[in-house]
Design a protein that fits this description.
This protein is of the alpha+beta class. It is 42% helix and 15% strand.
Length: 123
């Protein structure tokens, strides 16, 4: 057996990142008291309700987390299927334009939690 490691470069658009942020607005309300976007700095800052702690997340981190979820680097239950569909379409230039359509509020919640907290803490 031979193990082969490959590197693939994917282009996650700012539009897809903004879809994550938009959908997170619906998905994180049960654990976050506020969230703000700084499109110039390309950051999304989320404040936890109970901890009153602010977490600043870069657009790059959000993009990496959705790919990490799609490739099984996080155990996140059924939302992984949505991330896998996103990745599948992102890899296909014919459908990449619509890839963000797979990002719903549940997946966005998981993405933001992993990006901000390192794991899914709230459910």
């Amino acid at each position: 057996m031979v193990n082969v490691t490959t590197t693939t470069t994917l282009n996650v658009s700012d539009e897809d990142i903004e879809t994550i942020i938009e959908m997170a607005g619906f998905g994180i309300a049960y654990w976050a008291s506020a969230a703000t976007v700084d499109s110039e700095a390309r950051t999304y800052t989320v404040i936890e309700q109970d901890a009153d702690t602010a977490h600043s997340i870069t657009y790059d981190r959000l993009a990496n987390v959705i790919i990490e979820i799609a490739t099984g680097q996080h155990q996140v239950g059924y939302t992984r299927a949505y991330a896998e569909n996103y990745l599948r379409e992102l890899r296909d230039p014919e459908t990449a334009e619509y890839a963000g359509g797979h990002i719903d509020s549940d997946l966005a919640d998981v993405i933001v939690q992993i990006a901000a907290l390192g794991e899914v803490t709230y459910s």
